[in-house]
Amino acid sequence: MKRIVILGAGFGGLQATIELDRLFRGRTDLEVVLINDHNYFLFTPLLPQIASSYINPRHIVQAVRDIRGSRRFGFRRDTVRELHLDRRELVFDSGAVPFDYLIVAPGSRTDHFNVRGAKEHTWEFKTLEDAVVLRERVLDLCEHADHTSDAAERRRMLTFVVVGGGYTGVELVTELHDFLFRYIARRYRNIAPGDIRLIVLEAAPEVLRGVHPKLAQHALKRLRVEGIEVRLGARATRCFPGGVEVNGSEFIPSETLVWTAGVRAHELVEALPGPHDPIGRAIVNEHLQLDGHPEVFIVGDSAAALTAADAPRIAPVAIAQGQIAARNIAHLERGEPLESYRYVAQGMLVSLGMNHAVVNIAGLRFSGYFAWLFWNALHLYKLVGLKKQLQVAIDWSLGMIFPRDASIVRRPRRCRLCGTAEESEIPN
Ligand SMILES: Cc1cc2nc3c(=O)[nH]c(=O)nc-3n(C[C@H](O)[C@H](O)[C@H](O)COP(=O)(O)OP(=O)(O)OC[C@H]3O[C@@H](n4cnc5c(N)ncnc54)[C@H](O)[C@@H]3O)c2cc1C
User: Which of 112, 130, 283, 338 is a plausible cystine mate for 275, CB 3.0–4.6 Å?
Assistant: First the structure.
């Protein structure tokens, strides 16, 4: 029995699995096994709306077992520790799984660029847990700020710094803006809008690199109109528990620094043999195969395809590469020529909070309310499964009528104000 293993149930890995299931359905001599360290698929584009309490965390994840056709492929919830390509096996704490073909799609990780204190004193924003704990962190600080009599202390607690003005940083800061101004400032009697400060630090001279310059300019203007301080050419040079040093001189006091600035390939990918690009992604040929290992395909955020060096690290690229890797395995099995991956830019959509977005799609560029409606419609359509689509649509509708949910259902993960430092789990 031949075994095709897919590492990672994100956009690339899941798409590859679905495609393999379609291509090899009915083949009893071949097994498809998907491996992921948690048992759900996460729809990352809606993560900022978890941090702002707009939607329920469970509504943007889909259990792998609920994905259509999941009984036809194997699934193992486990963490891969090592990839042994020569022995053709993936190693876990509890053993190893051999493979004949492998699709590697473990996504990426945060790069703190060796900035002192960044790893220890900033909040990452990549996973569902990151978004959940950030939401609770924001609420926790608002609770403290509401009863402190020290105005400077209150201001420091209510200053939120986002390091990185890419689409994740921009979407996050605009969501936080909605949450803090539309909800918090109206309900916490001792917090005035003037106490709240939102800052974006971007080392480059512009925000939203990769987005059409006119739309990026529009977004910058919009952020500033909303009162968000966007500092361009501003590099976080050192991070502390109570603030951040900018460009080696200025110090901004803040209890919450969120790091969205840098991305690197996963450690497992960086450890693979063969060439890598400057951010550690494995350089693969046009068929997405690893040099010297035609049975190993790399897709998504982990891959730097020779034919698509300029492809951004976004979901549509991972999805397209997942499909091609799956089809190329089928071609290898049938002795057919392989397909090549070419990056075709499909456009870019960036939400700027409630009622505003910028959209660049199919040669059309627009912004404002209709762009926001388009952003919502497209993301709803792309969510996996009707149940999740309905849940998110209902969350959005309720969010327009009723206040957001400000309950803190567990102790914050770290809060030096009330002396909490332990780790805790996502609440039920
Ligand atoms: C906050 C945020 C917002 C984003 N918004 C957008 C957006 O609006 N539009 C867009 O197109 N893109 C967006 N992206 C980027 C998009 O999520 C990625 O480009 C895409 O997820 C890459 O797909 P992938 O398959 O390579 O990896 P992922 O989707 O990250 O999946 C990797 C999977 O592998 C698992 N894994 C990792 N290591 C192991 C291991 N050792 N063992 C087992 N499993 C492992 C992970 O848990 C994960 O499930 C966003 C990303 C973030 C973080």
Answer: 283
How high is the pLDDT of residue 425?
40
Give, using CA atoms, the residue closest to atom 30 of ligand 1: 107
| pLDDT tens figures, 274-304 | 999 999 999 999 999 999 999 999 999 999 9
Distance 107 CA to ligand 1 centre (A): 5
- Indicate if the pLDDT at residue 426 is higher than 60: no
115-150: b (≥16 Cβ within 10 Å) or e? bebbeebbbbbbebbbbbbbbbbbbbbbbbbbeeee
Binding site membership of 303 for ligand 1 (Cβ less than 6 Å) = no
**Ligand 1 pocket mutation, candidates 5, 36, 263, criterion most atoms within 8 A of CB:** 36
pLDDT band at 422 (very low <50, low <70, confident <90, very high): very low
Residue nearest to atom 27 of ligand 1 (CA): 107
- Quick one: angle between helices 213-225 and 167-178, nearest 10? 30
CA 153 to ligand 1 center in whole angstroms? 37
User: Is residue 260 within 8 Å of residue 172, measured between CB atoms?
Assistant: yes
Task: Name the residue of 39, 264, 314, 321 to mutate for ligand 1: max ligand atoms within 8 A of Cβ.
Answer: 314
Q: Report the relative pairing of strands 347-351 and 357-361 from DSSP bridges.
A: antiparallel
Angle between helices 11-24 and 315-334 (to 10 degrees): 30
8 Å CB contact between 354 and 222: no
What confidence tens digit (pLDDT) does each residue in 56-92 have? 999 999 999 998 888 889 999 999 999 999 999 999 9
User: Residue with structure tokens 């259902």?
Assistant: 409
Question: What is the per-residue pLDDT across 113-168, written as a single tens digit (0 to 9) for each?
Answer: 999 999 999 999 999 999 999 999 999 999 999 999 999 999 999 999 999 999 99
The string of pLDDT tens digits covering residues 186-205 is 999 999 999 999 999 999 99
Give residue 12 CA to ligand 1 midpoint distance, Å: 8
Q: Which residues contact 340 (CB under 8 A, 6 or more apart)?
A: 286, 287, 307, 324
